[in-house]
Amino acid sequence: MEQPEGAQNSLEGNGKAGSVIRMGTRKSQLARIQTDFVRDKLKELYPDVDLQIVAMSTIGDQILDRALSKIGEKSLFTKELENALEKNEVDIVVHSLKDLPTTLPPGFTIGAVLERESPYDAVVLHPKHSGRSLQELPDKSVIGTSSLRRAAQLKKRFPHLEFENIRGNLNTRLKKLDEKEDYAAIILAAAGLKRMGWESRVSQILEPSDCMYAVGQGALAVEVRARDRDILNMVSILHHHDTVLRCVAERAFLRQLEGGCSVPVAVHTELKDSLLYLTGAVFSLDGSDSLKETMQTSVLPNNEVVQSADDCSHVGVTACNIPEFSMGAAEKLGVDLADLLLSKGAKDILTTARQLNDAR
User: Fold this and answer.
1) Low-confidence residues of the chain, pLDDT below 70?
2) Which of 273, 321, 325, 358 is the least crowded, having the fewest Cβ atoms under 10 Å away?
3) Confidence (pTM)
4) Which of 201, 243, 188, 238 lies closest to 219 in space, CA to CA?
């Protein structure tokens, strides 16, 4: 089937024309599992659409000898996928939301943010330390993590431990842990371990008091070309209301701080009784210097009309099926909290962290 403007031209009548949708993904096992999950959701909703998966490698998959924060590329796990989207080689791309920069390239938008899996970090121990917690590990035990955010918080919380970089996909990192004596434990996102079916390896879930999570962690995002209105409408049904509002606040916070994977920034969000709570923090590389604040806002909409597709994008997320008041309030909460931290000196902490990281 010829698709001059992408698959959207053949999606008349709710996609019931036997159209083809090409789904871009990274090649890792976890990325494939996540893409299969989204494909199955879409297949249930649009059984007549032919959903084809196109897997490819990204810069982040290919450069494994350096820390993520040292590579100097904002779109480590997304650039090649977005290139394919731009060239019309794929129609949608499935990402871990935390991999997507807060400012997307022109012409792209996040058309769906699915219900969040656990956003917390998990401790996976070397078998010889089975049954212990981080607190109970021997002095000078080495913990593997590829994240400045995790290392900064855990260094402060567990000063008897040492932290070293570990790279590779989940399979590779678990193999490095199990088959060598280099690491006493590694820190991974709980969501990825659950999606891989490896919950039995989780020794400890890190509560926010130990380690706040990354912006967007645990949520899946579907990126599309902003002009492809039919595809945008098709995937928007996958939006999860609470997850969208929490992640919009988190992304607005990070964008206002001008943060990324080269600086330690962490968040925690809750939505209770139409009140959205956002806790945000910035850290020095060793965790000795930090700023942390919490703010809240009501996201309960008034009786407004649902907005048009031209005015319902916030920090790269287009969600026209969620009230504009709620989306705007969530974004403003993130911006306001970032401004509060900036007024207290967050920029100095982040600038120093970035300079020290670059010099290492």
Assistant:
1) 1-18, 58-77, 259-261, 303-311
2) 273
3) 0.89
4) 243
The 10s digit of each residue's pLDDT in 133-163 is: 999 999 999 999 989 999 999 999 999 999 9
286 is catalytic: no
The one catalytic residue in 40, 50, 65, 99 is 99
pLDDT, position 305: 53
Look-up of token digits 């790279």: 167
Please give the distance of CA 343 from its chain centroid, rounded to a whole number. 26
